[in-house]
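Key result, reporting period 2: structure in, sequence out.
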Protein backbone atom coordinates (compact mmCIF):
# COMPACT_ATOMS: atom_id res chain seq x y z
CA UNK A 1 0.00 0.00 0.00
CA UNK A 2 2.02 2.95 -1.27
CA UNK A 3 0.92 6.45 -0.51
CA UNK A 4 -0.19 8.55 -3.44
CA UNK A 5 2.07 11.49 -4.21
CA UNK A 6 0.48 14.81 -3.23
CA UNK A 7 -0.81 16.91 -6.10
CA UNK A 8 1.33 20.06 -6.27
CA UNK A 9 -1.57 22.16 -7.55
CA UNK A 10 -4.26 20.88 -5.18
CA UNK A 11 -2.56 19.58 -2.01
CA UNK A 12 0.15 22.18 -1.32
CA UNK A 13 0.48 25.92 -0.75
CA UNK A 14 0.58 26.38 -4.54
CA UNK A 15 -3.22 25.95 -4.51
CA UNK A 16 -3.53 29.40 -2.92
CA UNK A 17 -2.16 31.00 -6.10
CA UNK A 18 -5.53 30.17 -7.64
CA UNK A 19 -7.11 32.62 -5.20
CA UNK A 20 -4.84 35.52 -6.15
CA UNK A 21 -7.53 37.26 -8.18
CA UNK A 22 -10.02 37.14 -5.29
CA UNK A 23 -7.42 38.82 -3.09
CA UNK A 24 -6.80 41.35 -5.87
CA UNK A 25 -10.53 42.06 -6.15
CA UNK A 26 -10.75 42.51 -2.39
CA UNK A 27 -7.97 45.11 -2.52
CA UNK A 28 -9.40 46.88 -5.59
CA UNK A 29 -10.61 49.90 -3.55
CA UNK A 30 -7.07 50.42 -2.21
CA UNK A 31 -4.66 49.61 -5.03
CA UNK A 32 -4.14 50.66 -8.65
CA UNK A 33 -6.17 48.61 -11.13
CA UNK A 34 -2.91 47.21 -12.57
CA UNK A 35 -2.37 45.33 -9.30
CA UNK A 36 -5.81 43.74 -9.65
CA UNK A 37 -5.06 42.71 -13.24
CA UNK A 38 -1.71 41.29 -12.14
CA UNK A 39 -3.55 39.14 -9.59
CA UNK A 40 -5.62 37.73 -12.47
CA UNK A 41 -2.36 36.98 -14.27
CA UNK A 42 -1.13 34.96 -11.28
CA UNK A 43 -4.41 33.04 -11.02
CA UNK A 44 -4.47 32.36 -14.77
CA UNK A 45 -0.88 31.10 -14.67
CA UNK A 46 -1.90 28.74 -11.85
CA UNK A 47 -4.88 27.45 -13.85
CA UNK A 48 -2.75 26.92 -16.96
CA UNK A 49 0.02 25.14 -15.03
CA UNK A 50 -2.49 22.83 -13.34
CA UNK A 51 -4.11 21.96 -16.68
CA UNK A 52 -0.73 21.20 -18.26
CA UNK A 53 0.24 19.09 -15.24
CA UNK A 54 -2.97 17.05 -15.47
CA UNK A 55 -2.40 16.54 -19.20
CA UNK A 56 1.14 15.29 -18.59
CA UNK A 57 -0.06 12.92 -15.86
CA UNK A 58 -2.82 11.58 -18.13
CA UNK A 59 -0.33 11.08 -20.95
CA UNK A 60 2.08 9.24 -18.65
CA UNK A 61 -0.68 7.01 -17.25
CA UNK A 62 -2.27 6.26 -20.65
CA UNK A 63 0.32 6.91 -23.39
CA UNK A 64 -1.72 5.24 -26.14
CA UNK A 65 -5.02 6.94 -25.25
CA UNK A 66 -5.87 9.58 -27.87
CA UNK A 67 -8.35 11.29 -25.54
CA UNK A 68 -5.77 12.29 -22.91
CA UNK A 69 -6.25 15.93 -23.96
CA UNK A 70 -9.58 15.72 -22.16
CA UNK A 71 -7.70 16.01 -18.85
CA UNK A 72 -6.23 19.33 -19.99
CA UNK A 73 -9.55 20.71 -21.22
CA UNK A 74 -11.52 19.53 -18.20
CA UNK A 75 -8.99 20.93 -15.72
CA UNK A 76 -8.60 24.23 -17.58
CA UNK A 77 -12.35 24.84 -17.91
CA UNK A 78 -13.07 23.76 -14.33
CA UNK A 79 -10.27 25.85 -12.84
CA UNK A 80 -11.07 28.85 -15.04
CA UNK A 81 -14.65 28.86 -13.79
CA UNK A 82 -14.13 27.75 -10.17
CA UNK A 83 -10.88 29.57 -9.41
CA UNK A 84 -10.94 32.69 -11.59
CA UNK A 85 -14.15 33.78 -13.31
CA UNK A 86 -16.94 33.05 -10.83
CA UNK A 87 -15.09 33.89 -7.59
CA UNK A 88 -13.53 36.99 -9.15
CA UNK A 89 -16.95 38.25 -10.24
CA UNK A 90 -18.47 37.35 -6.87
CA UNK A 91 -15.85 39.19 -4.81
CA UNK A 92 -15.90 42.14 -7.24
CA UNK A 93 -19.65 42.59 -6.89
CA UNK A 94 -19.60 42.02 -3.12
CA UNK A 95 -16.92 44.67 -2.67
CA UNK A 96 -18.61 47.14 -5.03
CA UNK A 97 -21.94 46.71 -3.26
CA UNK A 98 -20.43 46.98 0.21
CA UNK A 99 -18.50 50.13 -0.70
CA UNK A 100 -21.66 51.70 -2.14
CA UNK A 101 -23.78 50.67 0.86
CA UNK A 102 -21.20 51.92 3.36
CA UNK A 103 -21.16 55.23 1.49
CA UNK A 104 -24.94 55.51 1.59
CA UNK A 105 -25.54 54.23 5.12
CA UNK A 106 -22.59 55.54 7.13
CA UNK A 107 -20.68 58.73 7.63
CA UNK A 108 -17.39 56.88 7.78
CA UNK A 109 -14.47 58.51 6.01
CA UNK A 110 -13.63 57.06 2.58
CA UNK A 111 -10.41 55.33 3.73
CA UNK A 112 -12.33 53.50 6.48
CA UNK A 113 -15.02 52.44 3.99
CA UNK A 114 -12.36 51.18 1.58
CA UNK A 115 -10.54 49.16 4.26
CA UNK A 116 -13.85 47.75 5.52
CA UNK A 117 -14.77 46.72 1.98
CA UNK A 118 -11.38 45.02 1.57
CA UNK A 119 -11.82 43.18 4.88
CA UNK A 120 -15.30 42.00 3.83
CA UNK A 121 -13.96 40.75 0.51
CA UNK A 122 -11.11 38.85 2.15
CA UNK A 123 -13.45 37.38 4.76
CA UNK A 124 -15.83 36.16 2.04
CA UNK A 125 -13.20 34.18 0.12
CA UNK A 126 -13.23 31.06 2.31
CA UNK A 127 -17.03 31.15 2.44
CA UNK A 128 -17.54 31.11 -1.33
CA UNK A 129 -15.01 28.44 -2.32
CA UNK A 130 -16.97 25.25 -1.57
CA UNK A 131 -20.34 26.42 -2.95
CA UNK A 132 -18.67 27.62 -6.15
CA UNK A 133 -16.65 24.40 -6.53
CA UNK A 134 -19.79 22.27 -6.10
CA UNK A 135 -21.75 24.44 -8.52
CA UNK A 136 -19.04 24.20 -11.19
CA UNK A 137 -18.88 20.41 -10.70
CA UNK A 138 -22.66 20.24 -11.20
CA UNK A 139 -22.58 22.52 -14.25
CA UNK A 140 -19.74 20.61 -15.90
CA UNK A 141 -21.23 17.21 -15.05
CA UNK A 142 -24.51 18.40 -16.60
CA UNK A 143 -22.94 19.77 -19.77
CA UNK A 144 -19.35 19.54 -20.97
CA UNK A 145 -18.44 16.30 -19.20
CA UNK A 146 -21.36 14.54 -20.88
CA UNK A 147 -19.45 14.93 -24.14
CA UNK A 148 -16.41 12.97 -23.04
CA UNK A 149 -17.26 10.84 -20.00
CA UNK A 150 -17.82 7.16 -20.46
CA UNK A 151 -21.36 6.05 -19.59
CA UNK A 152 -21.65 5.17 -15.91
CA UNK A 153 -18.39 6.92 -14.96
CA UNK A 154 -18.77 8.79 -11.69
CA UNK A 155 -18.25 12.57 -11.55
CA UNK A 156 -14.73 13.71 -10.81
CA UNK A 157 -13.99 15.58 -7.62
CA UNK A 158 -11.70 18.63 -7.59
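The corresponding designed sequence is given below.
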Amino acid sequence: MGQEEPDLYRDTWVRYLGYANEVGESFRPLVPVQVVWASYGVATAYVTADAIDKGRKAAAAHPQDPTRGVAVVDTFVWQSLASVAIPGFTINRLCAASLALLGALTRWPLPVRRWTTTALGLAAIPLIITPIDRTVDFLMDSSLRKLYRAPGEPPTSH
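The helical segments are 20-26, 33-61, 69-105, 110-142, 144-148. The chain has a mean pLDDT of 90. This case is discussed further under Risks and Mitigation.
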